[in-house]
Amino acid sequence: MARIRIRLGEKTKTLSVGALLIYLGIGVLFLCIFWQFSYLMINKTLDDEDLVAHGHDKFSRTAVNEGERGEILDREGNVLASDMEAYRLALITDSDYPNHVTEPKETAEALAEIIDMEASEIQERIEEGIEEERFQVELGKKGRDISYNQKNALEDAEISGLVFEAETKRFYPNGDFASHLIGYAEKGEGTDELEGQLGLERAYDDLLQGEDGTTDYTKDLWGYIVPGTDTVEPPKDGADMKLTIDSNIQLYLEDSLDTMEEHFEPEELFAVVADAESGEILASGQRPSFNPRTREGFGNSWLNMLYQHSFEPGSTFKVFGLAAAIDAGVYDPNATYESGSFDVNGHTIYDWEEEGWGNITYNEGMQYSSNALMMILQDKVGEDAMLDYYRKFGFGEPTGSEFPNEQSGTLAWDDPLQRKTTSFGQTSTVTPIQMIQGMTAILNDGKMKKPYVVESITDSATGEVLHKGEESVVRQVISEEAAQKTQEEINTFVGGSMERNPQYQLDDYEVAGKSGTAQVIDPEGGGYMDGPYEFLTSFIGYAPEDDPEVIVYYGVKLASKNKKDTWDIGVMPGFNPLMERTLKYLTVGESDEGQEAEVTEVGDYTGKTISEAAPAAADTIQTIVIGDGEEIIDHHPKNDRLLPYETFFVKTEGEAKMPDLTGLSKREAIMFGTFMDMDVSTEGEGYVKSQSIAPGTVLGDEAAVEFTLSSNDPAD
């Protein structure tokens, strides 16, 4: 092999060519490495990849700080909707994992004690997971939305194999409670963000929605956070919304709807309570409805009936034609006409009593709700002028509410027949919110108030008011004098000289208003449904009649049970208790007017004396005692609350005697039977007028009681 001699000073070293090449190769390699490191240090990139960023990504972390969705509150600050932390439960079934389920049967039985799920079903899921060698199993819907208290109980039970994943959900503490108005929010598809899906939750989603923040930090090779590397961007919570809704009045309304639904089993029900002076919506509800917490009933109806449901109102609409005629100077309550029918271009339109009531005065015709009179008045006002009045009352256009998809209704004015039938509330359509708005003009000297349900929207961090709902006048619809005269006429429609609609009278308040019975469009064959009592029955009323403070509009459509009652008593079973309880709650007409009565908290007074029970001392609570002793054996309700003018039932030691339940509502009479373990039957609707067991009778073997109810009609 060839060798090369290299002289180094006085020494000569002999190398083979191969060795020399190896040395040269190593030198070139180190030179390349040096060049590469120099290049990386100077340019900090490799194959167009930023190495600094790559290194940063490897050790940097970002945690999301969730922003909470804003709360929805009632007018007193009570929570109607808020974010709540819930948990999703899973069970580890992989035996290689230290914390796993070891005893499926015992685990299932322990879980069933705390969550609403059968032990056998839980055990089956666990055993399937073990058999199929899954890492974990979940329990479906029953394993989601685990509350904080349930989580603590499960952890205290020391059940092996449980893991919890925290998640945020929207919480609605009152369940089925103004559900279509408030709406609901849930996590959207493919996102962890709560998004408004219905009602105010959807209409104001952009303001209620919170903004997430972040925490950026760096970890070292061993997974520890490097001190001083964390940067926090705090989350921004959504704005809080306060409504004009009063939770107590809303509870009265929901209770009345339940009563009406049970009695009539209708296709639809609606009710709304408004402040007569300001236009504030104090309560609103409907059936079908749904529970936003459990989703029970969800999908039965998507429409918010207050704003999005238009219908032919029937005779309740006549109050606006009356107001127009009075304002135009063509209505004389003492003038007379021939009732019964009216001809329109060869068509004869009849009063609901086809033969009429003979020659009667205009005021009597209004009390009888005469269609013929309304058509006469329209001719006197003039069709063009009457259309202008209806438009000024707000019909045919949205009220400009908080809901972007509010319906406008229609004023059918294409031909003479439509124009005439509109005068008595057929052909043209309205929404409940339009009816409330129109009524405010009559009750406020002709100034129409815009209804509103959002009192304020406030930035939760700064307190800045982003939106303020305020009383506002839409326009002067009729003169002050005309409004006062219209109100005087309406005040004769309930219990006036013709004794019409006496069922709407209350013992403690003078109620005024107008009833309506409208035919309903047949959705299949067109035209109107022609079966017996196929109506939309309604009543729009206010009280007290001399100084109106509250408006209640109530409607029931197509009852399937007790149909005849829709004609005989109308919506009285729902309207009366709602109006009466609202007025008493607001202490209308009492010395402390303007001061709302307080809700009474009820504890457990078992074993204590009656004098120690807080509800028994409350001025606004009626206490009914069964027994002649002092020590309380049982009572209803317990660990709950009582709204003003509700009843507190107490059972004491000693001989139990039948109390006098005269004046109690049907609901309270049934509640008494449940409390005393007695069968209750009722006849009629309204309030207890008489009872089959006389007051003072010893309740020995008595196991049943029958109550006769009445509508508080003085003629009964």
Strand content: 25-35%
**Coarse shape:** globular
Give unreliable regions as ranges. Answer: 591-595, 712-716
Q: Span from first to last CA? A: 136 Å
Main sheet overview: 7 strands, mixed
Instruction: Give the radius of gyration.
Output: 37 Å
What report would you give on this structure?
This protein is α+β, with helices and mostly antiparallel strands and 716 residues long. 28% of the residues lie in helices and 26% in strands. Strands 6, 7, 8, 9, 14, 22 and 23 form a 7-stranded mixed β-sheet that branches. Helix 11 crosses helix 17.
Overview features:
716 residues, alpha+beta, globular, disordered C terminus, membrane, Penicillin-binding transpeptidase domain-containing protein
